[in-house]
Write a structure and sequence with these properties.
Largest sheet: 5 strands, mixed
Order of helices and strands: HEEEHEHEHEEHHHHEHEHEHEEHH
Bound molecules: glutamic acid
Number of strands: 12
Strand order of the largest sheet: 9-8-10-7-11
Number of helices: 13
Strand content: 15-25%
Distance between the termini: 95 Å
Helix content: 40-55%
Shape: rod-shaped
């Protein structure tokens, strides 16, 4: 009897258990074997730097943004993009885990590699020098600049000294000659002699000395004048051509003693500081373009693709890139050390390279006519 009661109790308990379990299950729907993967949302830090990252109609676009979208598609993740105003703020976002990664035009450097991890390179870049277009100042300012050049002022000084000497000799030789047009008195005689020397130098003399010594002197002076005119013409035209073709900054060596603008904390700023050059550091590269235009600085040192994009568009006719690439650099995606996404991002980058997507994107932004 007792055994039967126990069995009955057990039966009731089992029934209740089943009922509760089935009602819970029915509330939650049929049991699922595997939870459907929820797409992850990665927080991406970025920074405006055309043509890698730019804003158009309230939306972010550019090479790096489109590349990231392709990577995210490959990884099957969603993402939110947050632009940061400065490089340090973008780096801090990744370091303080406010962002899972950063993509813009971030150069891979040994120093950054200490604090962060990088993806495989996403773009081959390098630093270049940009200057104001020297032909843009107009004819009159250019001519004034050439006329006031130190080389020309030196030649004019030399010509004046030579005229003074020649005038004294001619005055000494000619002053006593009865038919001479030069007075015997020092004043105005010396002025008349200087006038003759100057007009001979310009190969325009009206009268010639009458005395024998005066004539010998005149022949000497005429030879010197011909040589002088040739020398003068050569120096002035060579100077003008070189200045008009290249301005006077052609390489990093020419940046000594000049103010150069670039963005704060960039690789270009570190390069300039490393060479004890004068740097104007700005947050946005556009501010460096403005500083160059208003002559606050004489050059901008920055990432070549960024400068080339500006020079071909808003800066057309106003600026010029000069010299060789100062240093080669690669851009990468910035990640915290040991990021769980690095491997997947690298895999996506390799796939995009293999299927031609990377090249198509490169052509779209950098060789549009192809
Ligand atoms: N490539 C430069 C760097 O990583 C970009 C600087 C910038 O975004 O202003 O330093």
């Amino acid at each position: 009897m007792i055994a039967l009661q126990r069995w009955w109790k057990r039966g009731v308990l089992a029934f209740l258990g089943l009922a509760i379990a089935s009602s819970v299950l029915s509330l939650n729907g049929p049991p699922r074997l595997m939870a459907a993967p929820q797409p992850q949302t990665l927080r991406v830090a970025t920074r405006l730097i055309p043509p890698f990252v730019m804003e158009e109609g309230g939306k972010l676009t550019g090479f790096s943004i489109e590349l990231w979208q392709k990577i995210a598609d490959q990884m099957g993740v969603r993402s939110t993009l947050t632009p940061y105003p400065t490089l340090p703020k973008m780096f801090a976002a990744v370091e303080q885990q406010n962002a899972d990664l950063a993509i813009a035009a971030i150069s891979i450097t040994a120093e950054r590699e200490q604090k962060f991890d990088f993806s495989y390179p996403i773009f081959a870049s390098g630093l270049k020098i940009m200057v104001r277009n020297p032909n843009r100042s107009g004819f009159v300012p250019n001519l004034l600049r050439d006329l006031l050049s130190p080389a020309l002022l030196q030649i004019i000084g030399l010509a004046l000294a030579m005229i003074v000497i020649a005038a004294h000799l001619i005055w000494l030789f000619e002053r006593r000659h009865p038919h001479s047009s030069i007075s015997e008195k020092y004043f105005p005689g010396i002025f008349e002699a200087a006038w003759w020397a100057a007009s001979t130098l310009a190969t325009q003399a009206e009268e010639m000395p009458r005395g024998a010594l005066g004539r010998v002197m005149a022949i000497f002076w005429m030879f010197i004048s011909v040589l002088f005119v040739a020398y003068f013409t050569a120096t002035v035209t060579a100077g003008m051509t070189v200045q008009n073709l290249q301005g006077d900054i052609k390489s990093v060596e020419d940046l000594k003693g000049r103010a150069v603008a670039t963005t704060a904390n960039s690789t270009a700023a570190a390069f300039l500081q490393g060479r004890q050059l004068q740097v104007l550091e700005v947050d946005k590269i556009e501010a460096a373009y403005a500083a160059l235009a208003n002559k606050q600085v004489d050059a901008v040192l920055f990432d070549a693709p960024v400068l080339m994009y500006y020079a071909a568009r808003d800066g057309q006719g106003k600026v010029q890139l000069v010299g060789e690439t100062v240093r080669d650099e690669n851009y990468g995606i910035l990640l915290p050390i040991n990021s769980p996404y690095r491997k997947e991002i690298n895999r996506a980058l390799l796939k995009l390279k293999e299927d031609g997507t990377s090249e198509a994107l490169h052509d779209k932004w950098f060789n549009p006519e192809r």
